[in-house]
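ok trying this again, last paste got cut off
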Amino acid sequence: GLETHRCTQGFTYHPTSYRLFDSKSLGYTSALLAMHVEEQDIEKMAELLNTIPGVTHNYIRTHELNMWFTLTVDSEDSFKSVVDRIEASKLTRRVIRLAQSEQFKIGVSFDLGGDR
């Protein structure tokens, strides 16, 4: 298995020399959210989500809740404000915060040509 070490300031260090941002340990709120968006409004909703700081990605699902996205912000108040903004757009009736049963992190490493 991959050996990991908890570091200070919200990063997990892996001996393979990359770091994962641990938003929760830094006091951020993060969640996967889902909503129903009518087919004709999907592009408009994607454009709205793409303007919101903290939305890391959004995607379409074949499900009644057909649009899902992740949100990471600095507080519950900020979280509520973003959800209120999305619901106020009238492109969806309700944004649902999905319960987290497991956490998965994907590591990304960029070789910038310098020493690590």
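PB: full thing came through this time. The first helix runs from residue 42 to 50.
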